[in-house]
Amino acid sequence: MTHYLFILGRNPNLSILEIVAYCRRKKINYNVLDHNEDIALLNLQGFDEHQAIKDLGGTLKIGRPLDEKMIYRGTKNKIVYAINYYKADPSQVDRKIKTLLNKEELKATRRHGKSRNIMPSQARTLDLEFLAYRDKIFMTTAVSNPKEYKQRDANRPAYDPLKVISIRLAKILINLAEPQQEIFDLFCGYGTILQEALLMGFIAMGLDKESQYAKKNMEWLEKQYPKVKGKWQVFQGDATDLRQFKTFETVVTEPYLGPFYRGYPSKQEAEKIAKELESLYKRTLIELAKKVTGKIVIIIPELKTREKENIKIEFSTILKRAGFYPVSPYQKIKIPIAYFDKKDKINRYIYVLEKRK
Question: Which of 80, 103, 81, 100 lies closest to 92, judged by CA?
Fold first, then answer.
């Protein structure tokens, strides 16, 4: 087994859950050695970091332990490098790396010297990148590609930034469901979850009252990525009536979260919205209990108000009624996971659910 250092995204607990769920799905032997707000250190066997960085939404970079016998395997004699520090002593790390570079007779120029955490877009321009964690040094071997995500978002024919989830979040949700063959999104909207599931090789099934947007985007994606082997299908319909379907392996969805407000609703308005959403979620989960065979990953809102009170959805009661319970891929991190910024109009909570047996 090999140690791998994962540099985590903005929500570290969610990123760690995703990594563990990914390893479980891919049947990778794993052991979580350490984690904090910046990194996760795992011992892994049968792991391909180059494929994983494409599949994982919450990981920015992945590194392997530094091989001091040969740190550069390219053909240049002039290289550009950078160092990230995570609870490491910069002076000791700098001296060691300079010694190793001199030993290989490399003319090395350092960039981003004042940055302790170098962004993926910067890292992709380097010949070498070092990740120093405590007393260990790792080499970056896989870096996420935010530019590709941005282009995929901006270029698809149907797009509304106020109504779509991010590509990174879509990947995270899919991985948390641990699908083997199929995902079903019963509020598929513009099809972001379906698109990422298809690119990951899954059968992607979607449902929405306004299904034309997802269909248009899925047709566009197939033309942009002709080598994609997955299959997809989008249906028009209501998430509270699933009689046209037999079963689903996994469900991954961000449901309707309430009407869009430019400001905040009053407490009275938010309470009314919460009751409407509770009814929608209850009817949807009761329907899903008859159909789903694996996990459900779903986002549930908490509504902010002008009075600065947060109105919660009574989701635990809904789960008991429908026969589901929350599960976590990694017992040290509990479900649900909060996923929001202070500037967001609503607070989002991510649940991973299984049926009671």
Answer: 100
Per-residue pLDDT of the chain (357 residues; tens, 9 = 90+): 899 999 999 999 999 999 999 999 999 999 999 999 999 999 999 999 999 999 999 999 999 999 888 888 888 889 999 999 999 999 999 999 999 999 988 899 999 987 888 999 999 999 999 999 999 999 999 999 999 999 888 899 999 888 889 999 999 999 999 999 999 999 999 999 999 999 999 999 999 999 999 999 999 999 999 888 779 999 999 999 999 999 999 999 999 999 988 889 999 999 999 999 999 999 999 999 999 999 999 999 999 999 999 999 999 999 999 999 999 999 999 999 999 887 888 999 999 999 987
Q: How many whole angstroms separate alpha carbon 89 and alpha carbon 293?
A: 49
HSE-CB for 309 with a 13 A CA cutoff: 9
Q: Which CATH number describes the domain made up of 2-144?
A: 3.30.2130
Provide φ and ψ at 168, rounded to 5°: -60, -45
Structure-token pair, residue 87: 């609870």
- Architecture of the 147-355 domain: 3-Layer(aba) Sandwich (3.40)
Distance from C-alpha of 177 to C-alpha of 183, rounded to nearest angstrom: 8
CA–chain centroid gap for 292, Å, is: 22
Nearest to 85 by CA among 122, 24, 133, 46: 133
Rounded Cα distance between 323 and 310, Å, is: 27
Tokens at residue 35, please? 């984690």
Cα–Cα dist 80/75, whole Å? 13
Closest CA to 176 of 250, 284, 286, 249: 250
Whole-model pTM: value is 0.95
What's the length of the chain? 357
Domain boundaries, the chain: 2-144, 147-355
